[in-house]
Amino acid sequence: MQTQCSLGKLELQGVGGRRVEADFSGGQISSDGGGLLLREVDRRLRLSERLSACFTDHRRSDLIDHSVEELLRQRTYGLALGYEDLNDHEELSRDPLLATLCGKRDPSGEFRRHPRHRGLPLASASTLGRIERTPAQADANSRYAKVVCDFDGLRDVLVDVFIESHAQAPTYLVLDLDPSDIPLHGSQEQRFYHGYYDHYCYLPMYLFCGEHPLAVKLRPANIDGAQGAVEMLAPVVDKLRAAFPGVVIVVRGDSGFAREELMHWCEDEGLDYVIGLARNTRLAGLIANQMEQARRDFLRTGEPARRFRSFGYRTLKSWSCSRRVVGKAEHLDGKENPRFVVTSLPNDLFEKRYLYEDVYCARGEMENRIKEQQLDLFGTRTSCHSFRGNEIRLWLSAAAHLLVVGLRRFGLAGTELARAQASTLRVKLLKIGAQVRVSARRVYIQLSTAYPRKDLFAIVAQRLRAPPLALSG
Fold first, then answer.
1. Could you report how far apart the first and last alpha carbons of the chain are, in Å?
2. Which of 374, 394, 411 corresponds to the end of one domain?
3. Cys-Cys link to 218, which of 34, 99, 391, 449 (CB 3.0-4.6 A)?
């Protein structure tokens, strides 16, 4: 049975002979005072400005209260601040602090054109959701959702921001590809069961360079894990080469990407690759001597032992040529643990142990970035019925991730939080109690006196006040 809760005075456990009472009469107080830093990062990157150019707005300009740029800010800032669902914005639409972050000229909503909207400076959940619910074929004659997304434009924005992050042209870039799963619990479009993950899911693919997201692609789960990899890489590689002529680009991925199409394309395009290779009896036989040596090392020392071998290898049917494979023969805890990678990198420059341990295994950091985007920035909230709407949600999560990357890069370099994940930054830097006062001349935000990292916050805010980045191209 649901209990009735009164929003009047709350009587709580006393302390020191005093009663403890609480109510909700504190006025305009927000828990998101640190969101001011996100706004500064956004300004430095010109992120929302550029993302909004990727949407065609067919709405009548004289009838709208919220521009596409404002809607994108509200949604991406909300994700970074911990508000994963559209439903959260029913109450957030009253928040003058979030309205200030979004650039609303009327942060109190006092002058909204419709009386029923006054006091609500931000978009409601239904208005905000139009970005996700607009079909690709929508136009000015559509009845409801009329804000059409260009996915290629979103990808170009992410790549441009990455390019602008380099003061000097890099000589070497590693592009990490990886799929993941997003469990589904409804009847979303293109919902399929995946045997490996043992549930109904989507199978998104991510492309990162270091901590920077470069592209995301939502895919159904009834496909090969490498499907679409070339299509994702090609335009990104073209933009990187145009910006950094002569740069060496290495594509890295797990064994799901050891496909002839991808490796052949890399070879034709002059790209290098380091890709995991699923073991089989032929491969195991080629490192049998090294495995025996590792077993003897383990028995002698009691410590995990590794031996490596580099050799030419070609599959019986699927590969068009012989390629270099590095095998790791490892013995640990009394059992064998063989692993293999296929690569175009030459043996004289990339010794077999170094290639496996330092070049290939570094891809584990990309998996941490996927977890950050999925768990901390709610990249798994794919509860829209439409497949397209869920893909837009994936891109919005990537945009929120870019805000976090920018906060670390511009504001937190050299500090204790320089490598902190989004969830840690949210708790330690963004969730600050703040009282908001709106007058005709200013928005005055009083942050909590008890906030323990005032000095760090001031340093970060000062760093972020630098001029915005010059646009690439």
1. 62
2. 374
3. 391
3-class SS shares of the chain: helix, strand, coil, % to 5: 40, 20, 40
Looking at residue 119, what DSSP letter applies? T
E strand or H helix at 425, and its extent?
A: helix 422-425
In a domain, 428, yes or no: yes
Task: Please give the DSSP secondary-structure letter assigned to residue 220.
Answer: B
Specify whether the CB–CB gap between 225 and 179 falls below 8 A: yes
Q: What is the rounded CA–CA span in Å between residue 317 and residue 260?
A: 10
**Cβ contacts of residue 17 below 8 Å, gap of 6+?**
none
pLDDT band at 471 (very low <50, low <70, confident <90, very high): low
Which tokens sit at 438? 């709106």
pLDDT at 1: 42
Same domain? 220 vs 71: no
Residues 317 and 340 in one domain: yes
Q: Does pTM surpass 0.85? A: yes
- Cβ atoms within 10 A of the Cβ of 249, count? 22
pLDDT in tens, 27-47: 889 999 999 999 999 999 999
CA distances from 212 to 175, 208, 299, 344, 461 (A): 10, 6, 43, 24, 22
